[in-house]
Structure formats: structure tokens, C-alpha cells
Specification:
Layout lengths: L1 E5 L2 H13 L3 E6 L10 H8 L4 E2 L5 E2 L2 E2 L1 H8 L5 E4 L8 H4 L6 E5 L11 H7 L4 E8 L9 E8 L6 H25 L32 H10 L6 E5 L2 E9 L10 E3 L8 E3 L4 E4 L5 E8 L5 E3 L16 H17 L19 H14 L7 H6 L3 H13 L11 E6 L2 E6 L2 E3 L2 E3 L6 E5 L6 E6 L3 H17 L1 H4 L2 H10 L14
Helix pairs in contact: 1-2, 1-6, 5-7, 8-9
Length: 505
């Protein structure tokens, strides 16, 4: 089939590439104009293939389609319009022109959550099921007949990014290709959308994302994650606007002990703990926020809110300076509108978007031989100088918040001093058991007491299970790719028991 692809972003690029692999002829690509000197990925890919690319800033004026735009489109002879992701308003003269019409991807299970912020509202409403719809375009707002739908489970701590990256992006690409295949085979259905259960919500903007504290903890959590990362749920506290990210209801075992953070309108003050910022709903239940963006745009760990300035600036070695310059070149390629990348250059204020974060992370990981780096790190260190400091700390292996404090018991054994920890290890820390309960450890050779070790109570077990669950679901190991896990495991030294014995025969 002859197809016109109308849209933008990496999603549009992937749909375009897969349609060409299926053997369809893409006769033209219509995408958004370049922004800050950067072309959209869809347009870039099409230009590489020699496919005509059009970048109209608008398709109509005073309610009428622009004749020149319509003429350029009609000259292509498209049989189907495919709109994988499109932020522009396309006039009906274009939508209804091909003999097969136009199909559109929408990231919700229509008729629920019509509108441009569908993923946000799926999370804000606490939906247990999410998914996407591919529908036949009409003159309404996301009201056309359904062609195809696929659903998925919405996880308790899903954000817009995690839901999109886990399901809506990869499965949406497959769905668009499947929809086009059904059309080419003459098997594509047209199922009218039911009006029962239909909802429409407006675009989420920063000014409308302020947190309403007079609601249960789960509703506050859903509001925060539904606005994470864009536009960001915020509140006013400590005489500034604070934006919260990385919220969870997994607070089992957490004790609200720490520094109080008064929040106007909140049921109770927040509490800054080692785990993050504990917040309360009007039902007295807790939620935990792990990242806070300050009013100046700087992202910090919520646990560091009341701490002073960051650690001292590292002095880079010659080799590290070479790496820094190589990373500077990566930034320069991603930010072509910046004449010179300086230490004060802010990645996002220079025009970078979420797609650029992915590109930066992947290129730097490749440059640094699979260094453990996450998208979150870019948000936490958005200026070039801060990013290099973070990168060097990671390369040196000292990027942790601090050394683990261990209280050892020392014993003299065979003319050697043996040091043994005797506390419980929970959540990355050695701690005493609840109520300082202990038990004797006996030397089996002579019955003497070696030392007193912490005796875990039921509450300690609950804390350990909660910490393990959090590490499994939100820890770094689960976030890095299988490729990077393999690299880390390969680099790990073998244990003594697995080393070959050179004397063995």
C-alpha cells in the first residue's frame, strides 16, 4: 500500500521503519518543523531513505485547509494515512482523502480518557488496566470507530514513562503494523465506540498539576505518578515550589522518623527520612517520594532535602579529562543550538527532551564501556559540570551516598585480629534489633561466648522484607538492561571457591 505517515517522535520513527520492512511504500512523511535546530527523529529517518519529508508549521488558517498544503499532499497519491503520534491538527480534507482513510494511535482504552493526556489520566484515576487503541479518524476528538485495542496491567508504582516504555511504546508499534496489515488484507473492523464509560480530560499543564492534599494517600500517589515526569506534581513548602517524583505506596516497615517538612494544606507535615520524603493523606496513610525538584530546576534525592551543598568538587585526572571532553562532544551533538557546551550548560534548558535523555545515556554508556547509568541520573545532574562530576564518581566507584557504618566485634584468632559485624543488615545498613534484643553466639569448640549478636524481632523481619521488595522493584539492578547486567557480572571477580586450583590434577 502507498502510505503517508503523519506524526513525530521515536514512536513515529519506529512505526515508519516497520511499515517499510513490511513492504509498504511510504510515499511521504509529514512531521513538525525543526525545533532549536533539531529535526524530529521521524523526519531524519525518512530523509535518509530519500522519502519526501514535509514540515508544515500549520495545515489550515481561519478554519480552512491551506490549498498549497493540500496540493502537496494530494500529489503523493497516498492510499492510507497512518498517524502514530501527531500533535498537529490535521484537516478533514487530508484525513478523508485516501481511499482507505486514516488511522490513529491513542494511548488509552477508548472511549475512556479521550484527549492529549490520556496516559496521565489513566494513572491519576488509578485505573488497574491500561492500553492503547487504534481507531479510524473522523471529525470528532478521539471518537472514531475502533480498529484494534490491546490492554495491559497498570502496576501500582507505574509512571507515565514506565507504562509507556514497558507496553505502550513497544506493543503500540506492533499494533500499528498489525492494523495496517489488516487493512491491506481487507480484514480491518470498524467498531463504533460505546458512549458508556466515555471520558474526556484536558491537557495536563504545570499550573494545573498542584497537589490537593485533602484526599487519601493513594489518590495523592496517583496524582504524583500521573504527572511524573511531565508536567510534574507540585506543592509549596519552605517558601518555594517543590515538584515530587518517584512516588510509591510501598511503605511497609518504614518509620516516619526524621526532619519534619511543613506543607501548607497537608493533613500532616511530611517527614524527610533516609528512605525519602514520607507524605500523608487525609486517611493518615503514608506514601513515599524519592525525588524532589527544587524551584531552580535542580533535582535532588528527597532524603537529602535538608542537607547542605553537595560533596566537594572532584579534581579530574588526565584520563578523566579526556573522557569529559568526549562526553562534551556528545552533549554538543545532542544540543546543536548551543554554540559551546560549558560547565553551566543545562541539558533541559538548552532544549533537550526525554528522547534526548535516552540518547545521552546510551551514548555515554557506550563511551564508558557499559557504565551503570540511568535516565534518572541526567535529571539529577542536568548541568554539564554536575553531570561530569556524577559520571566520574561512578567511574571511580564512589558514587554512593556514603560508606556503610559497621560496628565490629574483634577477636584474636591464630595470631590474627578478626573483625565481625554483629548487627542486622537491613536496607543497606547495619542496625540493632528492635528493643536492642541480642542473642549469644557460642564457640562450638569450647562453649565460650564469642559475642552478642542482634536478635531479629517480627518488626525487623517486616522491615527487611519491605527493604528487599523495594530493592527488587525499584533498585538499580532491576532498572539496568540485560546487556549491562551481563557486563557487570562478567567484570565481577570470581569467588575463591570458583577459581581453578593450579595444583589440581
Amino acid at each position: 500500500m502507498k502510505i503517508a505517515v503523519i506524526g513525530q517522535s521515536l514512536f513515529g520513527q519506529e512505526v515508519y521503519c516497520h511499515l517499510r520492512k513490511e513492504g509498504h511504500e511510504v510515499v511521504g512523511v509529514f512531521t513538525v518543523p525543526d525545533k532549536d535546530g533539531k529535526a524530529d527523529p521521524l523526519g531524519l529517518e525518512a530523509e535518509k531513505d530519500g522519502v519526501p519529508v514535509f514540515k508544515f508549521s500549520r495545515w489550515r488558517a481561519k478554519g480552512q485547509a491551506l490549498p498549497d498544503v493540500v496540493a502537496k499532499y494530494q500529489a503523493l497519491g497516498a492510499e492510507l494515512n497512518v498517524l502514530p503520534f501527531c500533535s498537529q491538527f490535521i484537516p478533514m480534507e487530508i484525513i478523508s482523502a485516501p481511499r482507505h482513510g486514516s488511522i490513529i494511535y491513542h494511548p488509552s482504552l477508548l472511549p475512556r480518557h479521550r484527549g492529549a493526556s490520556a496516559i496521565n489520566w489513566t494513572l491519576i484515576h488509578g485505573d488497574k488496566k491500561g492500553g492503547f487503541s487504534i481507531f479510524w479518524a473522523d471529525d470528532g476528538l478521539d471518537t472514531g470507530d475502533l480498529l484494534l485495542q490491546k490492554e495491559c496491567e497498570v502496576l501500582p508504582d507505574d509512571t507515565v514513562s514506565t507504562l509507556y516504555n514497558r507496553f505502550l511504546f513497544p506493543e503500540g508499534i506492533k499494533g500499528m503494523v498489525q492494523a495496517v496489515r489488516l487493512i491491506s488484507e481487507g480484514k480491518a473492523p470498524r467498531l463504533p465506540q460505546p458512549e458508556e464509560g466515555a471520558t474526556y480530560e484536558g491537557i495536563q499543564k504545570k499550573e494545573t498539576a498542584k497537589i490537593n492534599w485533602d484526599q487519601p494517600a493513594e489518590a495523592i500517589h496517583n496524582w504524583i505518578r500521573g504527572n511524573d515526569k511531565v508536567p510534574g506534581a507540585w506543592t509549596e513548602a519552605c517558601e518555594q515550589k517543590l515538584t515530587f517524583f518517584n512516588s510509591t505506596l510501598n511503605t511497609s516497615g518504614l518509620v516516619p522518623e526524621g526532619d519534619a517538612l511543613p506543607i501548607p494544606g497537608a493533613h500532616r507535615p511530611g517527614v524527610v527520612t533516609k528512605a525519602g520524603l514520607i507524605l500523608f493523606g487525609n486517611d493518615d496513610k503514608m506514601l513515599l517520594v524519592k525525588n524532589i525538584q527544587l524551584e531552580d530546576g535542580k533535582m535532588i534525592l528527597a532524603s537529602n532535602f535538608f542537607k547542605g551543598a553537595a560533596s566537594s568538587v572532584l579534581e579530574l585526572t588526565e584520563a578523566e579529562l579526556v573522557t569529559a571532553e568526549a562526553v562534551r562532544s556528545v552533549w554538543q551533538r545532542i544540543l546543536p543550538n548551543v554554540l559551546e557546551v560549558e560547565d553551566s550548560t543545562d541539558f533541559f534548558k538548552s532544549g533537550a527532551a526525554s528522547v534526548d535523555v535516552v540518547r545521552l545515556v546510551e551514548e555515554v554508556k557506550e563511551l564508558c564501556d557499559g557504565l551503570e547509568l540511568e535516565n534518572e541520573d541526567v535529571y539529577m545532574a542536568s548541568t554539564f559540570g554536575d553531570f561530569i562530576q556524577l559520571l566520574v564518581r561512578k567511574l571511580r566507584g564512589d558514587d554512593e551516598e556514603g560508606e556503610c557504618s559497621i560496628d565490629y566485634v574483634e577477636m584474636a584468632v591464630n595470631k590474627r585480629t578478626v573483625r565481625m559485624p554483629h548487627q542486622l543488615f537491613i536496607g543497606g545498613e547495619f542496625v540493632d534489633a528492635e528493643g536492642a534484643k541480642t542473642s549469644e553466639t557460642i564457640n562450638p569448640t569450647d562453649g565460650s561466648v564469642i559475642c552478642q549478636v542482634s536478635l531479629a524481632q517480627v518488626t525487623d523481619v517486616d522491615k527487611a522484607v519491605a527493604a528487599a521488595k523495594d530493592a527488587f522493584e525499584n533498585g538499580r539492578w532491576g532498572k539496568i538492561s540485560a546487556r549491562d547486567r551481563g557486563r557487570l557480572m562478567y567484570r565481577a571477580p570470581p569467588s575463591p571457591s570458583t577459581r581453578p586450583d593450579p595444583t589440581a590434577t
